[in-house]
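Figure 2 data, in text form.
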Amino acid sequence: MTSADQIRHLINAYSFTLDSGDLDGFAALFAKGEWVFDGGTPLVGQQAVREKLLTRVVIYPDGTPRTRHLSMNEDLFVDEAAGTATCRRYVTVIQQTEDLPLGVIYSGEYLDELARDGDGMWHYTRLSISRPFYGEFSCHILPSS
């Protein structure tokens, strides 16, 4: 598998783990990195992502947040020699619950920053989300306390 393929797989894991309700798998994506929303305080590492972000995700009786994170317009740059990569993309989130008809609840611009380990595996170093647009978001993320 090429570096670009491995990176796309990692970026897709962001969506698949979160949308399937695998919150531990999602948090593990940031074991060596940080997650930053709209210029706020970075959540550094798996534990911080799990405790400060994922505890606010609404999980429904089917074990999922009833969402689909759709990535598009991916602009991927890989520096093989340096073992680094960036991917700028748009993400749109759709959701449907018993009380909420299927619709767009969120859209934002994501900047994925990645690095390759000595064993050739890619991992997140930073994911920055900016320029958010909101729909009916309250059925997905609870307000921070």
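Caption note: The first strand starts at residue 34 and ends at 37.
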